[in-house]
Design brief:
The complex is a heterodimer. Chain A is mainly β. Chain A has no helices and 11 strands. In chain A, strands 2, 4, 5, 9, 10 and 11 form a 6-stranded mixed sheet that branches. Chain A has a 5-stranded antiparallel sheet with strand order 1-3-8-7-6, with no helix packed on it. The radius of gyration of chain B is 13 Å and the shape is globular. By secondary structure, chain B is an all-beta fold. In chain B, β5 and β6 form a beta hairpin. The chains are: A mainly beta, B mainly beta. At the A-B interface, β4, β5, β9 and β10 of A face β4, β5, β9 and β10 of B.
Chain lengths: 113, 115
């Protein structure tokens, strides 16, 4: 059974700092790894999707990497802003798992002025 | 175009009541998923449809939970005789293909509170 872990559970940083969020998964047989953002009381916004054949994806100030062999993904946020404050979730889609996503418990990020 | 929509956004039910939660996926999307998110946790899979066929219901926590998608578009998640432990946000997602690897797009969720 796929298990996904995110570290740290919470993070507080000053504005402008670069930061890294970590995601680890136990089953390397995945189709893809997705990073989401969730604002309080809201649904999930997809940030980046990395297919299993890819090593990284970039969108603006966000860069996500994937290392299947070690079961790890990282989300790098450059020059953080207060508007980046949210909970960040990673999710793995396991091959043969019926297309469902297995989520981590998230990292709650606060970027302070 | 319109994204995934869910209704109601908020639902308060007394213990023992039945509730029905609706999901309108993105038009043309073949796959539809329901997830349950407890407070402070990541979403957990409940069930999956490919068109009108329910292919995986392994995540439904009890036989009080029932989902349907009769015409392959709108889906309804029904919870009978609600219990306090059913309080959670219920998220619906859709994707355009039925093979593995397609991106899932999420709705805003329905927050269910059972009192």
């Amino acid at each position: 059974k796929q298990e996904v872990t995110q570290i740290p559970a919470a993070l507080s940083v000053p504005e402008g700092e670069n930061l890294v969020l970590n995601c680890s998964f136990t089953d390397s047989a995945i189709y893809n790894l997705q990073w989401f953002r969730q604002d309080p009381g809201k649904g999930l916004t997809s940030l980046l999707l990395i297919q299993s054949s890819q090593r990284e994806q970039t969108s603006g100030r966000l860069n996500a990497s994937l290392d299947k062999s070690s079961g790890r993904s990282t989300l790098y946020i450059a020059a953080s802003q207060p508007g980046d404050s949210a909970t960040y979730l990673c999710a793995a889609q396991v091959t043969g798992g019926g297309n469902k996503l297995t989520f981590g418990t998230g990292t709650q990020l606060k970027v302070e002025l | 175009g319109a994204g995934v929509s869910q209704s109601p956004r908020y639902k308060v039910a007394k213990r023992g009541q039945d509730v029905a939660l609706r999901c309108d996926p993105i038009s043309g999307h073949v796959s539809l998923f329901w997830y349950q998110q407890a407070l402070g946790q990541g979403p957990e899979f409940l069930t999956y449809f490919q068109n009108e066929a329910q292919l995986d219901k392994s995540g439904l926590p009890s036989d009080r939970f029932f989902a349907e998608r009769p015409e392959g578009s709108v889906s309804t998640l029904k919870i009978q005789r609600t219990q306090q432990e059913d309080s959670a946000v219920y998220l619906c997602a859709s994707s355009w293909e039925d093979t593995g690897g397609a991106e899932q797009y999420f709705g805003p969720g329905t927050r269910l509170t059972v009192t």
